[in-house]
Design goal:
alpha/beta; two-stranded parallel ribbon; single chain; 232 residues; 3 helices
């Protein structure tokens, strides 16, 4: 751990002890966790405090912890066995086990940069409501957050209170759902294509078949296996 990182952590722990839910240093990176109601106050402090000086926002992203710590496939020795039985259902199929989650599902993560101090910090804020995830927009503190927050809204369905123009940025205006959510089906909900006869974009029921993309054949590779007698 660098001394400057420890100094920054100690400064935040001292100045914002009542507001910080957690502050940790791992892999030479400092991460702090704040409650939604304290996000704007902490963000303003991180920007304006002389010791912090995080004047630049690098990224804002959403996180879905629905299947955190779990794996869809059990890794086996044969390879194909990993995809024979699925543990979770991402399309609501009654034949598969439905994903259950107990806890705060969505979080917003910000990465900040201090050019003056050549220092970075990660700020994490969990949304209180899993059905309607929402935090305050930091666009008024760092204007660069505008498009980042729109992306998190589009991909994860996280709302940003106070955002001046919160609308989809990557998907179509008529798109259904949020693609980066863990329970969003990999094949999507609908197909979109341009119809030559109608001269417009139309939506149709999805035509892609859901399938396990695991190799069924394991081929020998002489780069990693002993040469067979008689091979040239």
């Amino acid at each position: 751990m660098s001394v400057s990182l420890q100094t920054l952590k100690a400064h935040l722990d001292g100045m914002q002890a009542e507001k910080l839910q957690q502050s940790t240093i791992a892999l030479n990176e400092l991460t702090i966790e704040v409650a939604p109601e304290d996000l704007l106050e902490i963000s303003t402090f991180l920007r304006d405090d002389e010791t912090c000086g995080f004047e630049q926002l690098i990224d804002v992203c959403g996180v879905d912890y629905l299947t955190y710590g779990s794996t869809e496939w059990e890794t086996g020795g044969s390879g194909f066995s990993r995809g024979v039985k699925r543990e979770f259902s991402f399309d609501g199929d009654e034949q598969d086990e439905v994903i259950e989650f107990d806890g705060k599902r969505f979080a917003v993560v910000m990465h900040l940069l201090s050019i003056k101090h050549n220092q970075r910090i990660r700020v994490k804020c969990y949304c209180d409501d899993n059905d309607f995830p929402m935090v305050d927009s930091v666009e008024g503190i760092w204007s660069a957050a505008n498009w980042f927050e729109r992306e998190a809204f589009d991909m994860f369905g996280i709302m940003f209170s106070g955002h001046p123009d919160l609308r989809r940025i990557l998907t179509d205006y008529g798109f259904i759902g949020h693609p980066f959510r863990k329970d969003f089906p990999l094949i999507g909900h609908v197909d979109m294509r341009y119809d030559e006869e109608q001269k417009r974009v139309i939506y149709e029921p999805v035509s892609i078949e859901d399938r396990t993309l695991v190799p069924r054949v394991i081929r020998k590779d002489q780069r990693f296996t002993p040469a067979v007698e008689g091979d040239e």
